[in-house]
Amino acid sequence: MEIKDPEGFSNKVGTEVVHEHNDNRIHIEGVILDEHDQSLGHFFEQLGGQLHQDHMAIPTQKGLVEVENGQSCPDGEASLQVFVYKQNLPSNDGSTEGKHFSQQKLTDPENYLISPHSKIPPGDCIIIEFGVEKEKTDKLCVFYQVAVKKGELVEK
């Protein structure tokens, strides 16, 4: 789903601190005074939507789209699932650990704290799916795909 486009003279959807520029990236710019302001749920709130463990509302060009666990989909009963890929940052011993990344399924996506990196990777690759329950996703953000193709990252 595509988040609604910025309107008027603004080049962003959300607030000055938490927003999206129609580039498929979450931007957190400025000073975060409350840890909640760095959460994935807060990002959705600032867009005019919601993200909970079992419900999501997202503003699109065609209006607010809402999905909820238990709705039917072509393959059965659907569930809201959020996955995050993170780069394993290198340790001080100079190992190659920093070239690896791994995937995690979030159990509390609303309160997930977005990593404080300006570059992706190592910033988060967040995949939100609504479908049949599964443990892993086969989707990957473009920024991570490019890093893998360039040999900068390897999935662990």
Give the secondary structure arrangement, pairings included.
Elements: E1 13-14, E2 18-20, E3 27-28, H1 40-47, E4 50-51, E5 55-60, E6 63-68, E7 72-73, E8 76-77, E9 79-87, E10 100-106, E11 125-131, H2 142-149, E12 154-155
Parallel strand pairs: 10-12
Antiparallel strand pairs: 1-2, 2-3, 4-5, 5-6, 7-8, 9-10, 9-11
Any low-confidence stretches, pLDDT <50, length ≥5?
Answer: none
The ordered H/E elements are EEEHEEEEEEEEHE
Strand order of the largest sheet: 11-9-10-12
| Average pLDDT, all residues | 90
Tally of helical segments = 2
| Residue share in β-strands | 25-35%
Please describe what this structure looks like.
With 156 residues, this protein is mainly beta. It has one domain (13-155). Helix content is 10%, strand content 32%. The protein is built from two helices and twelve strands. The two termini are 28 Å apart.
Keywords:
mainly beta, 3-stranded antiparallel beta sheet, about 160 residues, 4-stranded mixed beta sheet
Briefly summarize what is shown.
With 156 residues, the chain is mainly beta. It has one domain. 10% of the residues lie in helices and 32% in strands.
